[in-house]
Write a sequence for this structure.
């Protein structure tokens, strides 16, 4: 089947198998491997991206369901070589270790702040509960998101 | 603390982060290899049974199938011995042949053009199994009627260790406290599952093996043996690795199959483990049943300890099988215990093999001694923190060797306990607890204390390779035998090299995780990296500086003693205008005409092995504050206070990160996670929801801090920090949960302390008044 969509600002059109997941499309067809796969039950959130500005676990959509959509992945978050303030906050506050959950976590966090610009700690924790991290104990991730909201 | 002007001891943000934050970092499944075939494993869905037949004919005819391997076409792979201390009679046939021994045992491997085709064909492989009686628990394995998993071994016991069998350690005790408890089976759950990409051809007709792993140099010999190649023809590289936590230190038979298939087929073969597969195929951790009797005098002085553990090694014993050795060594903890009897037994069961998982043998020891101490405190009517303090090893006695052979380097256990109690506001917490108890609140407060010591760089892992070189472009590189996978080694080691040489951190590269680039190494496990490789880099940097100063002194016609470092190069103290740049020094180092007579031309480089001569022993104290809802059994972590002492701190940012992550994983054992099987050996927790990995919403922010007690065993004064948080937190939290309800007559609740378990304990509690 044909799917036409915009990925990180670039329009493209591809022939794909109907069963191809959006995350597989991004990784294998578009070649954007920054979006990671951490499970097969939509539990971990490692593959979180933005679809028309909202955070979506890209393993929960088929590529063909993204017809006409505007997709942003972690590779599209920085602009002109400058990291997004959320990426900067994660670095400043050591909100990542192995980095595997990080792209999904950053995408979920930016989406969270788009919905609630000044969340409480509890709201950040609730807002990120669909994204699992095994390294940080979430402490510094929460700190980074709160700091990004501050700035 | 940092000396004035020193970078050491400062919070330095990581060099690793930009690549990870922008999606540029390549994990193994990100590596481009369009020509790679995919391998998918066909696994047993029976826990134990006779393998009657494997029919691959229909599968072979499926689209895209390249090859199918199984017991009758096994790629010539011999049975695999996972850990050398376990008898070969427990070796694992790479493909199950006459019987299957756990759900997840490999029966066949399908190689196809695409992953989807391999999955489809794997579904079409027909396996016939005649079920055999199943062993799930340690008790099953040791029962008189138990079937033998390996009849030729004659026993289900695959490892044993014992200490102090001759005398009664409880003789002379006024009081004996007793516990029987479990340290339940856990899954490591690195966010990146297992995987590899095996590329035949290079080097030299051999194979390059890209693997998600913690210790590439440990995988190389296993691959070399089964592939029949010379070591230099097998290159093992680990790219960016998405977490390890111990399970990725294991050598997986899946790697052997993928590599052998790639060699046979003459094309790259890729394996990307799914999470459901990971939960049965990646080694698990813990899974001990434990007993302890602690004898004390009425004034709370410990007389002796009588302890025993039975560990499950799973179906094919791996490193996990021998971990009771470490439990034995650490079972006395931070206490002066004159007499100890210990017995450790490991059995095989029809479950996933057990390996190392964050702590690996030490958490079990700490959980046991810290739990039985709380029981003793309750019996004696002594505050649990006070009872611990009365029995701490004397700080003046270090270094010392404990009754169980732990060669502790340095420790001051009251220091971390006092700091933790002060940070917690312990007295106020006890007052609040008393108030809630008196008022009969439906939500009670629990306060749990643990004091711990652990062993890092254990099991002889205290030596490591390190090299430092300054290049012609003025940059430097560090080569080490450890293998970073999230710890921030590039940052940490660059701080060390930069401190010595003056070269800016962002001009210092890290070379690791590649057997072609690093001659030998033991990888990153057992919280060993800074104290071993960090010190190797420290020593090599100093040697490089000695040579660089000689070269600069020759050129500047000065004494090497007067030469000082700067970012750009070396100069005579007080004359920074005449600088010999690092570029010039590197070039001059190889040019005899530019060298003093006593120097031979050669690279501006030094390499060597650092030997710490023994392990180091980090310690600390944790205080957990929980609320327990008496109506529902719900436990809520309100606060967690951790004071961890990992020796002298190089980068507090990295240390804090390790503490936080460790606490979360320790909390997960205390409250949430448990790999479960039904009585037929079917795994019940094969996804992240059923296994209940905690999310941000289930944990509080942590109150982590440090005391600093240098290790005398290395120049950086460092001890490991990777596992401390996990070791210290679990018993504090379990103790807190029980403490919250102990006034109702509850003396123990096993982990994980789920709402159901706490609620059931409350229903049976002698002191509970029905509301």
């Amino acid at each position: 089947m044909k799917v036409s969509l915009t990925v990180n600002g670039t329009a493209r059109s591809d022939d794909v198998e109907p069963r191809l997941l959006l995350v597989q499309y991004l990784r294998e067809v578009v070649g954007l491997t920054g979006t990671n796969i951490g499970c097969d039950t939509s539990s971990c959130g490692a593959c979180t991206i933005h679809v028309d500005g909202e955070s979506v676990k890209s393993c929960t959509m088929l590529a063909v369901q993204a017809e006409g959509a505007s997709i942003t992945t972690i590779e599209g978050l920085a602009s002109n070589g400058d990291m997004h303030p959320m990426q900067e906050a994660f670095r400043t506050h050591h909100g990542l270790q192995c980095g595997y959950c990080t792209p999904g976590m950053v995408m979920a966090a930016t989406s969270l702040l788009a919905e609630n610009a000044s969340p409480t700690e509890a709201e950040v924790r609730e807002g990120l509960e669909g994204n699992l991290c095994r390294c940080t104990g979430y402490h510094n991730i929460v700190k980074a998101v709160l700091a990004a909201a501050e700035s | 603390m940092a000396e004035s002007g020193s970078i050491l001891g400062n919070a330095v943000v990581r060099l690793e982060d930009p690549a990870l934050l922008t999606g540029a970092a390549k994990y193994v499944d990100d590596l481009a290899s369009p020509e790679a075939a995919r391998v998918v494993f066909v696994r047993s869905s029976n826990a134990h049974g006779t393998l009657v037949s494997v029919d691959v004919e229909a599968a072979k005819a499926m689209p895209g199938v390249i090859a199918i391997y199984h017991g009758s076409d096994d790629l010539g792979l011999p049975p695999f011995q996972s850990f050398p201390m376990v008898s070969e009679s427990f070796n694992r046939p790479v493909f199950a042949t006459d019987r299957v021994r756990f759900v997840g045992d490999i029966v066949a491997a399908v190689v196809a053009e695409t992953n989807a085709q391999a999955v489809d064909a794997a579904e079409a492989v027909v396996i016939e199994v005649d079920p055999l009686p199943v062993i799930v628990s340690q008790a099953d394995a040791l029962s008189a009627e138990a079937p033998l998993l390996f009849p030729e071994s004659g026993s289900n016991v695959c490892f044993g260790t014992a200490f102090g069998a001759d005398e009664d350690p409880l003789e002379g005790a006024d009081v004996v406290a007793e516990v029987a408890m479990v340290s339940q089976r856990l899954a490591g759950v690195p966010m990146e599952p297992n995987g590899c990409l095996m590329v035949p051809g290079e080097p030299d007709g051999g194979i390059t093996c890209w693997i998600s792993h913690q210790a590439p140099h440990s995988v190389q010999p296993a691959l070399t043996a089964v592939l029949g190649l010379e070591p230099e023809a097998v290159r093992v590289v680990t790219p960016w690795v998405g977490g390890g936590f111990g399970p990725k230190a294991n050598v997986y038979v899946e790697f052997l199959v993928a590599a052998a298939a790639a060699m046979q087929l003459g094309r790259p073969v890729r394996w990307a483990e799914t999470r459901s597969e990971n939960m049965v195929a990646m080694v698990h951790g813990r899974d001990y049943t434990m007993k302890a009797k602690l004898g004390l005098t009425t004034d709370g002085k410990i007389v002796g300890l009588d302890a025993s553990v039975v560990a499950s090694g799973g179906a094919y014993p791996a490193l996990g099988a021998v971990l009771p050795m470490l439990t034995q060594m650490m079972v006395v903890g931070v206490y002066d215990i004159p007499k100890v009897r210990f017995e450790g037994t490991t059995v095989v069961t029809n479950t996933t093999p057990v390996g190392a998982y964050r702590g690996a043998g030490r958490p079990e020891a700490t959980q046991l001694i810290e739990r039985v101490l709380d029981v003793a405190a309750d019996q004696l009517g002594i505050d649990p923190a006070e009872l611990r303090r009365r029995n701490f090893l004397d700080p003046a006695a270090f270094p010392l060797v404990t009754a169980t052979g732990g060669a502790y380097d340095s420790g001051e256990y009251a220091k971390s306990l006092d700091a933790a109690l002060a940070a917690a506001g312990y007295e106020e917490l006890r007052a609040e607890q008393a108030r809630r108890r008196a008022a009969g609140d439906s939500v009670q407060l629990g306060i749990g204390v643990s004091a711990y010591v652990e062993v890092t760089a254990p099991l002889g892992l205290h030596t490591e390779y390190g090299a430092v070189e300054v290049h012609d472009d003025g940059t430097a590189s560090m080569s080490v035998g450890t293998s970073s996978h999230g710890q921030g080694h590039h940052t940490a080691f660059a701080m060390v090299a930069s401190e010595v040489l003056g070269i800016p951190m962002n001009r210092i590269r890290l070379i690791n995780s590649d057997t072609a680039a690093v001659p030998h190494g033991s990888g990153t496990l057992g919280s060993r990296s800074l104290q071993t490789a960090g010190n190797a880099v420290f020593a090599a940097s100093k040697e490089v500086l000695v040579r660089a100063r000689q070269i600069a002194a020759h050129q500047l016609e000065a004494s090497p003693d007067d030469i000082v470092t700067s970012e750009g190069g070396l100069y005579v103290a007080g004359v920074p205008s005449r600088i010999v740049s690092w570029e010039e020094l590197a070039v001059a180092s190889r040019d005899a005409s530019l060298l003093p007579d006593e120097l031979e031309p050669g690279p501006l480089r030094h390499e060597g092995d650092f030997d710490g001569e023994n392990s180091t022993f980090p310690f600390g104290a944790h205080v957990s504050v929980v609320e327990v809802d008496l109506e529902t059994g719900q436990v809520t972590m309100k606060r967690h206070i951790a004071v961890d002492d990992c020796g002298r701190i190089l980068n507090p940012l990295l240390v804090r990160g390790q503490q936080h992550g460790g606490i979360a994983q320790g909390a997960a054992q205390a409250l949430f996670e448990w790999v479960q099987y039904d009585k037929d050996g079917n795994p019940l927790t094969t996804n992240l929801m059923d296994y209940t990995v905690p999310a941000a919403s289930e944990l509080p922010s942590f109150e982590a801090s440090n005391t600093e007690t240098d290790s005398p065993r290395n120049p950086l004064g460092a001890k490991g920090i990777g596992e401390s948080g996990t070791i210290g937190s679990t018993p504090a939290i379990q103790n807190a949960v029980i403490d919250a309800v102990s006034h109702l007559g509850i003396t123990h609740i096993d982990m994980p302390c789920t709402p159901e378990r706490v609620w059931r304990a409350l229903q049976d509690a002698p002191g509970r008044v029905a509301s």
